[in-house]
Amino acid sequence: MAYFLKKTHRNGRTYLSIVESYYSPQKRCGAHRTFKSLASVESWKAKGIDDPIAHFQKEVNALNDEISNSQALKISESSPELYLGYFPFVSLLNKMNIKKFVDYFNISNSFEFDLYELLSSLIFARLVNPCSKYRTFHEVIPQLRGATHFSYNQLLDGLAFMGNDYGKFIEIFNEQMKKVYNINTSRTYFDCTNFYFEIDKEDNFRRKGPSKENRKDPIVSLGLLLDANQIPIGMKLFPGNESEKPVLRDVIQALKKKNQISGKTIHVADKGLNCTQNIAFSKENGDGYLFSKSVKTLPEKEKIWVLLNNEDWKEIKNDNGTLLYRYKSCIDKFPYHIEIDGKKKTIYFTEKRVVTYNPKLASKKRYEISKQVEKARSLCYSQAKRAEYGDLGKYVNFTNENGEKAKATINEDIIEKELELAGYNLLITSETNMKSTDIYNTYHNLWRIEESFRIMKSDLDARPVFLQKENSIKGHFLICYLAVLLERIFQFKILNNKYSTQEIMKFVKSFKIVKGESKYINVTTSSKFIKDFEQMTKLPLTNYYLTERQVKQIFRYKI
C-alpha cells in the first residue's frame, strides 16, 4: 500500500487528489482509490499557497513515511534469541524416564504447577545461562523452547519442596541411571567443598568454618560421591562448621542402602578424609579404602623408609623418556588408635602402602616453601608480633634452647625437612593385591571430583547463593548437582570422554538461534565439537538458517 499525488487537467485547470494504491483480493492485482480530493491548483493559489503541488506532495510523503514506519519491524520486550544447546539433556531425561517418577509428587501434593516442568526448566536454565532465580525466571526460561506454566512464586515454592527432600530426587536419578547406563560402585570417589554466602549473620545451616576460598563469610559444605566412571551418585549438604570426615560414612551408607548395593566398594578420598573411623567403617562394611597420607606426619621409622634410596624404586616415564614419577611399595600390619566405649585401643590393619615421588610436584612444592620462608624472614627482620605470622609461624623459633621467649629466628631444621620431603606422597589401601600403578592411577582420578566442583562453581555459577531459606538453598544445590550429573552422563556415556568439559559447556551455552520473519538464524560460532556432533546426530546443527520443522527435529532427537 502506498499514496501518490494525482494531477488531472480539465477545462484549463489542474485538479489534485491523493490516491491510495492497494492490493485487491477480488481482482488479484493492484488497484487504486481516491483517499482525498484537493480541488484545483488555481483555487489553492488564490488562497495564498504559491506552489500547491509541492505543498501536498509533502503530505503524501508524510503518509508514505507513516506506512513505512508502521510496517518496519520493532524490537520487543522479550529477546528474540532461543537457546538450543541443552537439547541433548532433554533427550537424556526422556531416555531415563525421569518425568514418570517426578509426576508422582504431583499426585500426592496439591501443586498448581507441573513439578517436572519446573525441575527440568531450572536444570536447562542453569546449564545455558546460570544466574539468580529472579533472572532465571524472567530472562532465561523465556528463551527456552516451549511455554512454561508456573509463576515466580511457584518456582520458589517448588525449589523449596525439592530441597526439603533432595535425597529422594537424587535417588530417582540414580535408580533410572542404573537401569539405562549402569552405576559402577566397585570404586567410589569422595570429597568435600564449601560455598560462601555474602551475609553477616550465621544461622543453623550457614555457619562459619574453614573456607576453600579463605573467606570469613558463613558457608555451607557439600560432599560429593562419584562412581568408578566418575559420574555423581550422591550428595550431602551440611553446615559449614561441621567436620567433613563423618560425611563420607553417612553418604556411602545411605547410598548402598537405597540402591541395594551389597558388593564390595573401594572408598577413594584425599588425606583430609583419612581418619581411623573412616578406615574402620570401610572394614566393618566389607569394603576397601584408598587414601593418601601426609608424609610429614609419619613416624620417624616410616619417614626413613620413604626417603631410603634403594633398589625398590621403580620409574614410570612417558613416550619421550621423561620421568613422570617413581614409586615403591610394601605390605605390612599398621597400627591405628581408636576409642571404643570410652577406652582407647590400638588395632592393626594389613595394608599396602605406595610411596611416590613426582619431580614436577617437588619443584612446585620447593618453590612454595621458598616463598613462604622469604615472607617469614621479612617478618623476623621487622620484629613482627607472633600473631602476624599465621601459618608462617611453623618456620620460626619464638623461644630459645631453654624454652624461654626470645627474638624470632628462622627454624632452618624445619625448612630442611620440608624441602627433603617435597614431591613425596603416600597412598594407603586395604587392597593388597592391587598393582601399585593401578593404585596411583585410581587415586589420581580424584581430580574428576575437583572438576565437578569447578563445574558447579564456575560453569554453573553455584556461588554466591542469593537464596535465604534453608530448603531453597538445598533446592539450588540439587539443581546444580543434577546439571553436573547430566553433563557427566553426556560426556562419559554418550561421547565416550572424547571431549573436555570446557568444549561441551561452551557448546551448551553458545548454541543459540534468533527468530527471523520466516526462519531462524543460527548465531552459533563454529567449532570442532559442533561439527563432530552434527556428524554423530545427523542434525542440521551448523546450518545458518533453520526452519521450525528442523528445530522440532533437534528437540525430538533421541540420544
UniProtKB/TrEMBL annotation:
Against PANTHER family, the record matches this protein to: PTHR34614, TRANSPOSASE IS4-LIKE DOMAIN-CONTAINING PROTEIN
Q: Where is the signal peptide?
A: none
- In Swiss-Prot or TrEMBL terms, this protein is called IS1634 family transposase
Name any one Pfam family assigned in the record. Answer: DDE_Tnp_1
Q: What is the lineage of its organism?
A: Bacteria, Bacillati, Bacillota, Erysipelotrichia, Erysipelotrichales
Q: Which InterPro entries match?
A: IS1634_transpos, RNaseH-like_sf, Transposase_11
Q: Which organism is it from?
A: Allocoprobacillus halotolerans
Instruction: Tell me where in this chain the Transposase IS4-like domain is found.
Output: 208-486
